[in-house]
Amino acid sequence: MKRDVVKKEQEKKDMEDVVEQDKLVEIRSKRVPGKLEIHQNGIRYQSPLSTQQRVDILFSNVRHLFFQPCQHELIVVIHIHLKDPIIVGNKKKTKDVQFYREATDIQFDETGNRRRKYRYGDEDEFEQEQEERRQLGFHGVPFRSNVFIQPTTDCLIQVVEPPFMVLTLEDIEIAHLERVQFGLKNFDLVFVFKDYSRAPYHINTIPMEQIEDVKDWLDNSDILYSEGPLNLSWPTIMKTVTADPHQFFQDGGWSFLQQESDDEGGSDEEDEESAFEIDDDDLDAASESSEEDSDYGSNVSDEDDEDEAELSDDDEGDDWDEMEEKAKKRDRESGLDDEDRGRKKRKH
What we know:
There is one protein chain. The chain is of the alpha+beta class. It contains 9 helices and 14 strands. The protein has a 4-stranded antiparallel beta sheet with strand order 7-8-9-10, with no helix packed on it.
């Protein structure tokens, strides 16, 4: 008995500095860790909190499925873009459902140097390969923040930061590049869909250094594009299109976007031509000087003709044989004259 009493007193003494804590308040965010399962005709996400909290997605309703590894990001993403929206969570309909898992790079080796060498033997080459894959992408602002946008075979996507962006290329009718001017650092990109009831999609503040890459991508994707120096009023344009689409295309359709680009180029050419225009007075002075130059040139040409004529007359002499005979004849005649003069002197 005494031993038990001493033991209890000792335990009580040891527990004197222990304070009773308040009840823990759990943080339950929208992104609850759970389990993703694949089944015969779809996939199921099961929440660990309750068996009733689950999301089922049928393959027949999947339009695009993207897998994005943790390239320059700390998450691995499986993003599903649906054909028809579904209800998820708090009774909001959505066409984009994403499953992700945080991933961190292994900085220490738990199993020996062999595994680390196998994975980290060519870090520079691996990073260079990843950079080449990302060269097709570009930065822009589709909503409020500047994000990295990447083209795929069938889409243009941004699935890292919400709100997500998934544009199907076959739904796009035309693309227009706005604010393409010399001196500006950024331009905007507008996509007009084949379904005119959808509002045009804007991607703003794309660096001007990437405009040629964007044009090449649009060209390789068989998307008609145009460019202009100003931002257009697309609500007004789409209102005109939806009011009477037949008349809109009878009047030229989207050709006015291309004409805007041509007019811009034409104005530049006119500016260049106007720089070489001269006044009428300068034109008259130039014509008079040209006439004086022509008179001077004619006089010089006449003198040259006379000199050439003289040279031609001299050049038209006899042959060498004829000239030699004439010289001998002259010598004989001069010899006879000298003899006659000598005889006359003797007679005197």
